[in-house]
Design brief:
This protein is of the alpha+beta class and 159 residues long. Helix content is 42%, strand content 14%. The chain is built from 7 helices and 3 strands. Strands 1-2-3 form a 3-stranded antiparallel β-sheet. The longest helix is centred in the N-terminal third of the chain and has 15 residues.
C-alpha cells in the first residue's frame, strides 16, 4: 500500500497487524507515536509529505523542554498570563516527513507544544486551527475544554 486512495481492506488489516506488532515493545507513548508515524509514512510514502502524531497533556505534566516552548510561544503572542497548570497542551509526540528536519519532534520550531489557552490564541497557529476544524471539534472547543472530546467527536469508534 503506497497511497491512501488505493488502500484496500486487506491493506489496512495488514497495516493494523504490523502496527500492533511493532508498537508492542515500545516503552513510552512518545516512542510508540514516533514508531507509528514512521510505519504509516513508509506505507503511504506516495501520498504523504508529513505525518505527525499529537497528544494532549496538562501544562503541569509537560517535560522541561516542552514547558519552555509553551512559555516562549505564549509570551511571543501575549498570552503568558493565561497559562495555568491545568491548561491543555497539544504536544507533538511523533513525526515523519520528506524533509530530514521533520523526522525529529525535538526539532519542531512551531508545533512542539501548543497551549490551548483561548480560541483566539489557537487561531494564530494555522496548522492546529485547521486540524481542529477538520476533526470536527472546531477551534471553539478550546473555550469549552470537554475532557471527553474524542468520544464526543468520533463516537463509539473511539472506544
Amino acid at each position: 500500500m503506497t497511497t491512501v486512495g488505493t488502500a484496500t481492506l486487506e491493506d489496512i488489516t495488514r497495516l493494523r497487524g504490523l502496527v500492533e506488532k511493532e508498537l508492542e515493545g515500545c516503552q513510552s507513548l512518545q516512542a510508540a507515536a514516533q514508531r507509528f508515524s514512521e510505519l504509516l509514512f513508509e506505507e503511504l510514502e506516495d501520498s504523504a509529505v508529513l505525518l505527525r502524531v499529537f497528544g494532549t497533556a496538562s501544562f503541569a505534566q509537560l517535560p522541561g523542554k516542552e514547558k519552555e516552548f509553551v512559555v516562549r510561544l505564549a509570551q511571543e503572542r501575549g498570552f503568558e498570563d493565561e497559562l495555568r497548570p491545568s491548561t491543555n497542551v497539544v504536544t507533538l509526540l511523533g513525526t515523519r516527513g520528506r524533509r530530514p528536519s521533520w523526522n525529529d519532534r525535538r526539532l519542531s520550531q512551531r508545533h512542539l507544544a501548543i497551549p490551548l489557552v483561548r480560541t483566539s490564541f489557537v487561531k494564530t497557529i494555522p496548522m492546529v486551527s485547521r486540524l481542529m476544524s477538520e476533526m470536527g471539534t472546531g477551534v471553539e472547543w478550546v473555550e469549552k475544554q470537554h475532557t471527553n472530546i474524542v468520544v464526543k467527536t468520533m463516537g463509539k469508534m473511539a472506544t
